[in-house]
Design goal:
It is a single chain. The protein has 2 domains: about 1-205, 3-Layer(aba) Sandwich (Rossmann fold); about 225-435, NAD(P)-binding Rossmann-like Domain (Rossmann fold, 3-Layer(aba) Sandwich), CATH 3.40.50.720. About 40% of the residues lie in helices and about 15% in strands. The chain is built from 14 helices and 15 strands. The protein has helices at about 1-10, 25-35, 45-55, 105-115, 135-145, 185-195, 205-235, 240-250, 275-280, 290-315, 345-355, 385-390, 405-410, 420-425, and strands at about 15-20, 40-45, 75, 85-90, 125, 155-160, 175-180, 200-205, 325-330, 355-360, 365-370, 380, 395, 415-420, 435. The strands form 3 sheets. It has an 8-stranded mixed β-sheet, with helices on both faces. It has a 5-stranded parallel β-sheet with strand order 10-9-13-14-15, with helices on one face. The protein has a two-stranded antiparallel sheet with strand order 11-12. Strand 9, helix 11 (about 345-355) and strand 10 form a beta-alpha-beta unit. Helix 7 packs parallel to helix 10 (about 290-315) and helix 10 (about 290-315) packs across helix 11. The protein is elongated and about 75 Å long.
């Protein structure tokens, strides 16, 4: 009865939608539901985000401020208001701790906050990436302590986020959405919810299957990134251009998908999510060697890049210590402002530890500070001018943003370490460029 009523409210756009966590995942969802005519309430403990949304100003580069100027959008840091909404979608961080083990602190805290006001007829959906079993083993016991019965008095499901910031071809609403429920009735409600805003929903048999789907997607990418990074090292020793090899290989119309090497891996998904599964696998006495090896290869890439810099400086009669190095790009990927798990952060930290004077330029990231694993990094982006470039011993291209004047860089740098093949791809390869 209650679940039938909720389905009707959703289909009639009378259901109030709550989003917990207004970051790179939660904010696009808040906007999407409001655009479709739903009253949407965003919850976040970060007062800065709340204030920016209230002012109609986006703090995420690829989300236009105009999208926040919708009278159906409400935001609050007050978690006691969770009882007001009919649907609660959880989009909180799921980082790793210092031992590379899952840290579900934010998920658990959110679950307890929901439980304090959970009422009959509500739907709770977890979107945060995690290991298979989290919704069933962590979320459900906390919510069930209320005495409400899942699948009868409230619904619980899992639907993995598939955000790709700054992707001009795919956004939240036109990427098929995998959905799973604790019970068949829960799945029915979850699918009804996302059918209102998503191009297509993909129902699966359980929340564990939905959780495993997201993990598989990111493991696939992590392993293939590690493969091309490892081949880059070998091919450079063989005097073979890895970028040319990839371009040739991807002309095959089947059986090959191009991945590209770089200074490491970054973002909240690929460097984090695979290790949720390796941790869970230990419970079953299974060692996931492919994932561990991929992590080892990708985590070593910043050191490989710094070795390239060190040898290149030595060839010019300079030492790494006391040199001045300009980093181009601290975001983890091109054309976004997201610095989470960016390999640039590790490279900056290592350089500083070796006595290097480091500055950076990133048109998307005016500041670089307050990072979980790099608390000592506190920098501001500097202007990119001819005079500035000429003061540095080396420039390292770590993120290949489109809106950087690479002609200026190529013409005024004494040494360039190009980890993204930017200059060669633009026909700007010079005698001072080292591909890394």
């Amino acid at each position: 009865m209650y679940l039938k009523d909720l389905k009707e409210k959703i289909e009639n756009k009378q259901a109030k939608i709550g989003i917990v966590g207004l970051g790179y995942v939660g904010l696009p969802i808040l906007v999407a539901f409001a655009k479709k005519g739903f009253s949407a309430v965003g919850f976040d403990i970060d007062e800065y985000k709340i204030n920016q949304i209230k002012k109609g100003e986006s703090y995420i580069k690829h989300i236009p401020s105009e999208n926040l100027k919708n009278e159906l959008i409400d935001v609050t840091p007050d978690m006691t208001r969770l009882g007001e909404v009919d649907v609660i979608i959880i989009c909180v961080p799921t980082p790793l701790n210092v031992h590379r083990e899952p840290d579900l602190t934010y998920v658990v805290e959110t679950a307890y906050a929901i439980a304090r006001s959970l009422r009959t007829g509500q739907l709770v959906v977890l979107e945060s990436t995690t290991y298979p079993g989290t919704t069933q083993e962590v979320m459900l016991p906390i919510l069930s302590k209320t005495g409400l019965i899942v699948g009868e008095e409230f619904s619980l499901g899992y639907s993995p986020e598939r955000e790709d910031p700054a992707n001009e071809n795919f956004s939240f609403v036109n990427v098929p959405k995998v959905v799973g429920g604790i019970t068949p009735r829960c799945l029915e409600v979850v699918q009804t919810l996302y059918n209102q805003i998503i191009i297509k929903t993909i129902p699966v048999s359980s929340t564990q299957t939905a959780e495993a789907t997201k993990i598989l997607e990111n493991i696939y990418r992590a392993v293939n990134i590690a493969l091309v990074n490892e081949l880059k090292i070998l091919f450079q020793k063989m005097d073979i251009d890895i970028w040319e090899v990839i371009e040739a290989a991807k002309t095959k119309p089947f059986g090959f998908h191009a991945f590209y090497p770089g200074p490491g891996w970054g973002g909240h998904c690929i460097p984090i999510d695979p290790f949720y599964l390796t941790w869970k696998a230990r419970e079953y006495d299974v060692s996931l060697k492919f994932i561990e090896l991929a992590g080892e290869v990708n985590n070593l890439m910043p050191n490989y890049v710094i070795d390239k810099l060190t040898f290149s400086l030595n060839d010019r009669g300079k030492s790494l210590k006391k040199s001045r190095v300009l980093i181009l790009g601290v975001a983890y990927k091109k054309n976004v402002d997201d610095q989470r798990e960016s390999p640039s952060l590790k490279i900056i930290q290592i350089l500083k530890q070796h006595g290097v004077e480091v500055e950076y330029h990133d048109p998307y990231a005016p500041t670089c500070s307050n990072h979980r694993h790099y608390p000592d990094i506190n920098l501001k982006s500097i202007p990119l001018t001819k005079e500035v470039l000429q003061t540095f011993d080396a420039v390292m291209i770590l993120t290949d943003h489109d809106n950087v004047d690479y002609n200026l860089v190529a013409e005024n740098s004494s040494l360039i370490i190009d980890t993204r093949n930017v200059l060669a791809s633009k026909g700007l390869k010079t005698v001072v460029t080292v591909t890394a």
